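Structure first, sequence second, as always.
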């Protein structure tokens, strides 16, 4: 079943260099997690869901394409406005072709869950990065619900999944803190009769739960232990379409935000950034580092708290980031490590095991990004330790390993380091942040081939 890895041949190198303070206002694109969920859940309703502010990045567009292959009707009306005609819970048709998720772990894992609850067979595939990422952790609970993995080498893509004919509800306590894993089980459990319960030791982003409630499902979440949650979903709901407004992605906002903090004299306002407390670990950490980030005009948009963030360039100090904070800032560690390079003193980021299975081995790639630019960085077990000295030499060529967040983090470093920083390939930035280069340049950054 295993075929040659799809290769990415057209690389686009890019270099960032220091160019005076960053100034102005900008709005980063819509949240990736919410965008992917809006399309999938919209496709599981009966009727028409309108979405505004959808992220039109490649990860989301690939997920849209797979939903079309399964019988959903998805139309782009323009500028982030989309219309989704759903097929109802368990209503997917068997696809004629394999489902190709490109670089998107979230799209693939959530759709494994959605397909697991339907009596169809589908083959899942992705690019060379996605083909290295573990799927067994998702397949195991889906098999408990009644799905069958027909073929998969070592729990990796490409894999073929036969959805459950008679899905059964389950009680599941994931071993890893992963919103993708939780969401896959919830999506599969939609077609099971009775209650499915998920017990999370550490609470992870709750966008699936909130959106299911928004579409009329009976779902409740109670605190569990010190920082966990017990989530109970009543199966076989009729999901009723409801409009979705996608707020700006805090994980994308992290890049211009940290660039503005690091470039002296900068003042930038980032508009409408989602402030869901399960996504704001970076802001908590930056506050401890002494950063100047103000939350202005705090308001509610589409069921989420959002704020305009005013960021000013300022000196930072090293801190210790506890492992318990990791789920609320899991995607922000590479760019936090860049900020830590420019801080005074040591920053210790604890409990980063999950970074090893992202779009790349992000723990290794982040340490390498720092070292090639003259910053002392060490991996100790699952911890990353950065020796900040208030500046970074720069001058390195960073290997991005098909990972959008490594690419953007390296470019942020180059905007503040003594010498320019180059990356081997900017192409994957478009998976989550189309328009990144234009947005950064509009604030005064110098990014060029
Ligand atoms: C996501 C969950 C996180 C995160 C990813 C998006 C989601 O992954 O890294 O970018 O939308 O559920 P894990 O659930 O594997 O931690």
């Amino acid at each position: 079943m295993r075929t040659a890895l799809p290769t990415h041949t057209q690389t686009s190198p890019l270099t960032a260099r220091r160019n005076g303070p960053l100034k102005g206002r900008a709005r980063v694109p819509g949240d990736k997690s919410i965008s992917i969920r809006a399309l999938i859940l919209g496709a599981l309703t009966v009727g028409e869901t309108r979405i505004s502010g959808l992220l039109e990045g490649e990860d989301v567009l690939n997920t849209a394409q797979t939903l079309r292959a399964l019988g959903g009707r998805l139309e782009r009306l323009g500028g982030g406005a989309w219309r989704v005609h759903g097929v109802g819970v368990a209503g997917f048709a068997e696809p004629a072709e394999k489902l190709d998720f490109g670089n998107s772990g979230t799209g693939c894992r959530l759709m494994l869950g959605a397909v697991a609850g339907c009596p169809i067979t589908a083959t899942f595939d992705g690019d060379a990065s996605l083909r290295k990422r573990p799927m067994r952790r998702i397949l195991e609970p889906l098999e408990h619900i009644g799905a069958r993995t027909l073929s998969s080498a070592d729990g990796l893509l490409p894999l073929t999944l036969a959805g459950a004919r008679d899905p059964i509800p389950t009680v599941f306590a994931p071993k890893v803190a992963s919103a993708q894993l939780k969401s896959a089980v919830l999506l599969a459990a939609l077609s099971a009769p009775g209650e499915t319960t998920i017990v999370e030791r550490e609470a992870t982003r709750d966008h699936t739960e909130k959106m299911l409630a928004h579409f009329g499902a009976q779902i409740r979440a109670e605190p569990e232990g010190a920082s966990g949650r017990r989530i109970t979903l009543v199966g076989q709901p009729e999901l009723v379409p409801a409009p979705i407004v996608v707020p700006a992605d805090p994980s994308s906002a992290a890049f211009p935000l940290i660039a503005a903090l690091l470039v002296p004299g900068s003042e930038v306002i980032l508009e409408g950034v989602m402030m869901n407390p399960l996504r704001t670990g970076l802001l908590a950490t930056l506050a401890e580092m002494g950063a100047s980030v103000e939350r202005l005009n705090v308001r509610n948009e589409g069921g989420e708290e959002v704020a305009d963030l005013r960021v000013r360039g300022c000196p930072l100090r090293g801190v210790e980031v506890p492992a318990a904070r990791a789920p609320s800032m899991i995607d922000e560690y590479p760019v936090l490590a860049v900020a830590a390079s420019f801080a005074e003193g040591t920053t210790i980021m604890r409990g980063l095991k999950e970074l090893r299975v992202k779009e790349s081995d992000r723990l290794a790639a982040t340490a390498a990004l720092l070292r090639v630019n003259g910053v002392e960085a060490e991996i100790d077990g699952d911890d990353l330790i950065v020796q900040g000295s208030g500046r970074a030499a720069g001058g390195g060529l960073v290997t991005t390993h098909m990972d959008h967040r490594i690419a953007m983090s390296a470019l942020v470093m180059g905007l503040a380091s003594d010498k320019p920083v180059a990356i081997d390939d900017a192409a994957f930035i478009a998976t989550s942040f189309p328009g990144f280069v234009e947005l950064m340049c509009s604030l005064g950054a110098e990014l060029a081939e």
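Margin note: Residues 250-262 form the longest helix (13 residues).
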